[in-house]
């Protein structure tokens, strides 16, 4: 069994710091929620690198919200439910589509500058959206622009204290209630931060896989510390692989935004043939999971490691104006988006599941909240609709702050003492262990899965369990322990779900089975595995 705490801890022996609200993480969810909370509370933001290191920064496409007169919340609602393949919470989606526009207004008030055309927001369309409803900034640098605006505002706030280069090892809980966090400072010393509310905004789990569009900080920390703290973890078998990440020697798996296909780019196999008509009537704008699996099928049939995305029908001026970041990045590697076919392949991109929350972002542990990719609000179901992630973060960030207003202050510090006598250090270097884990996940728990492979992967992952008995002291050791926790949960959930749905595809069960599987798989460290029912309005 995975232990309650990653390290031996005697809370009474540690320095104590008190604040109103702790925000863990610095993506759009962390920054936005911290700013909203700081209007009435003292906030401590803890980030393991810096304010500018998060997945949000890499978000190119934009933020989905109903802005146009031709659009409506009903259309956005339907599109989200269709993409979510029967597992969305209809009440959570209802909240998202109706409160998204006000969240965008908040972002603008906080200094975000979205692209305009003729005095109106320049809206674009992405895969599985029926309307143009994606706001973007500087063409394809939406995430970077949001992070720029929000982090500047955060630094100016007298009510926000920022701790860069600090690592949250575990949450401190007692009797189903969260009292704050156990934090390691850059010098290795530990401190207990007590708070009335603790908000996880720690992002996703892309580093479970060797090929990912995520930065190296996306190590499933939030999911794993919440699991150890007794929160419910839901739907983690649903991992979204982005169909088109740059696949070129020497280049990182850089995202080639879905918006490129939204603007008319086509996919070709290495023989130059367009192939999406063989897989889906929406062609290149089919749901992401369909496009990603189609690409893998073409790669297998042509014995290639990539396919091409072809945007050469557009003029150089249009390409540069609409996708300046992607254009420049590709150019660094001698690839011209306006005249070359760009080699791409799928890469791990987004975790649909996470820490289960209610409609106010509260988890099953009192005073513990989750926001952004780390959470499972029910908005994304089995497959996230493009550009709904940034909207989800602001909508539920606002709701979390509303809920915090009614919390009474924490008056006591629980007596926590765990001494498992962890003395031995991990024998194999963590970097080797991590690579091994990533290879297992890629091979057995990737885009295409089957029972035999999942079982083999699960057994291989379990061989690493001794890490929890070791004396852990460094950030990368904690990160590996968190990755292993999440990898085991993801693999077990994928093994249990004997059907294909959304981002989860089983070759031995290739169709969806609503009669049996239209339900959530929920893990709880104390209560084991349970089923969650679908919330239908």
Automatic annotation (TrEMBL):
It catalyses: L-aspartate + O2 = iminosuccinate + H2O2. It is found in: Cytoplasm. Its cofactor is FAD. One of its GO terms (biological process) is 'de novo' NAD+ biosynthetic process from L-aspartate. Pathway: Cofactor biosynthesis; NAD(+) biosynthesis; iminoaspartate from L-aspartate (oxidase route): step 1/1. GO terms for cellular component: cytoplasm. Residues 436-523 form the Fumarate reductase/succinate dehydrogenase flavoprotein-like C-terminal domain. It holds the Pfam family FAD_binding_2. It comes from the Bacteria. Keywords: FAD, Flavoprotein, Oxidoreductase, Pyridine nucleotide biosynthesis. Its EC number is 1.4.3.16. InterPro entries: FAD-dep_OxRdtase_2_FAD-bd, FAD/NAD-bd_sf, Fum_R/Succ_DH_flav-like_C_sf, Fum_Rdtase/Succ_DH_flav-like_C, NadB, Succ_DH/fumarate_Rdtase_cat_sf. The active site is at residue 288. SUPFAM superfamilies: FAD/NAD(P)-binding domain (SSF51905), Succinate dehydrogenase/fumarate reductase flavoprotein C-terminal domain (SSF46977), Succinate dehydrogenase/fumarate reductase flavoprotein, catalytic domain (SSF56425). It is an enzyme of class 1 (oxidoreductase). GO terms for molecular function: L-aspartate oxidase activity; steroid dehydrogenase activity, acting on the CH-CH group of donors. Residues 20-390 form the FAD-dependent oxidoreductase 2 FAD-binding domain. Coiled coil: none annotated. Belongs to the FAD-dependent oxidoreductase 2 family. NadB subfamily. Catalyzes the oxidation of L-aspartate to iminoaspartate. NCBIfam families: nadB, PRK07512.1. This is L-aspartate oxidase. It comes from Paenibacillus cremeus. The gene is nadB.
């Amino acid at each position: 069994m995975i232990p309650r705490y990653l390290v031996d801890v005697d809370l009474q022996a540690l320095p104590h710091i008190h604040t109103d609200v702790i925000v863990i993480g610095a993506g759009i969810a962390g920054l936005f929620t911290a700013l909203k909370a700081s209007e009435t509370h003292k906030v401590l933001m803890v980030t393991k690198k810096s304010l500018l290191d998060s997945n949000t920064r890499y978000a190119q496409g934009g933020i989905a919200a109903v802005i146009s007169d031709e659009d409506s919340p009903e259309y956005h609602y339907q599109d989200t439910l269709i993409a979510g393949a029967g597992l969305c919470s209809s009440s959570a989606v209802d909240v998202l589509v109706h409160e998204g526009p006000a969240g965008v207004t908040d972002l603008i008030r906080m200094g975000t500058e979205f692209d305009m055309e003729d005095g109106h927001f320049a809206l674009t369309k992405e895969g599985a959206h029926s309307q143009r409803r994606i706001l973007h900034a500087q063409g394809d640098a939406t995430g970077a622009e949001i992070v720029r605006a929000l982090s500047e505002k955060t630094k100016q706030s007298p009510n926000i204290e920022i701790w860069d280069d600090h690592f949250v090892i575990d949450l401190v809980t007692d009797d189903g209630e969260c009292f704050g966090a156990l934090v390691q400072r850059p010098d290795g010393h530990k401190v207990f931060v007590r708070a009335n509310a603790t908000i996880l905004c720690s992002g996703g789990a892309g580093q479970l896989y060797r090929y990912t569009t995520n930065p190296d900080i996306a190590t499933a920390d939030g999911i794993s510390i919440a699991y150890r703290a007794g929160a419910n973890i839901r739907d983690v078998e649903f991992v979204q692989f982005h169909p088109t990440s740059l696949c070129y020697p020497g280049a990182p798996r850089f995202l080639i935004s879905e918006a490129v296909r939204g603007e008319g780019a086509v996919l070709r196999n290495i023989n130059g043939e367009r192939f999406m008509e063989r897989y889906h009537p929406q062609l290149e704008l089919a749901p992401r999971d369909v496009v990603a699996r189609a690409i893998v099928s073409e790669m297998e049939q042509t014995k290639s490691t990539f396919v091409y995305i072809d945007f050469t029908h557009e003029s150089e001026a249009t390409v540069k104006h609409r996708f300046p970041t992607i254009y420049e990045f590709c150019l660094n590697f001698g690839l011209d988006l306006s005249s070359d076919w760009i080699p791409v392949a799928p890469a791990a991109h987004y975790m649909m599941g996470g820490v289960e929350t209610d409609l106010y972002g509260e988890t099953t542990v009192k005073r513990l909240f989750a926001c952004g990719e780390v959470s499972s609000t029910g908005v994304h179901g089995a497959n996230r609709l493009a550009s709904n992630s940034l909207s989800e973060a602001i909508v539920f960030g606002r709701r979390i702050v509303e809920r915090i207003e009614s919390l009474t202050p924490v008056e006591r510090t629980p007596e926590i003492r765990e001494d498992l006598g962890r003395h031995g250090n991990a024998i194999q270097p963590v970097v080797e262990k991590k690579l091994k884990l990533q290879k297992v996940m890629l091979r057995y728990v990737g885009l295409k899965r089957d029972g035999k492979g999942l079982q083999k992967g699960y057994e291989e992952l379990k061989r690493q369990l001794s890490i929890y008995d070791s004396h852990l002291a460094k950030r990368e050791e904690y990160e590996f322990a968190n990755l292993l926790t999440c990898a085991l949960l993801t693999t077990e959930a994928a093994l249990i779900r004997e059907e294909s749905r959304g981002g989860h595809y089983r070759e031995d069960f290739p169709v969806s089975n609503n009669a049996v599987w239209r339900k959530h798989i929920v893990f709880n460290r104390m209560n084991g595995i349970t089923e969650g029912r679908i919330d239908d309005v």
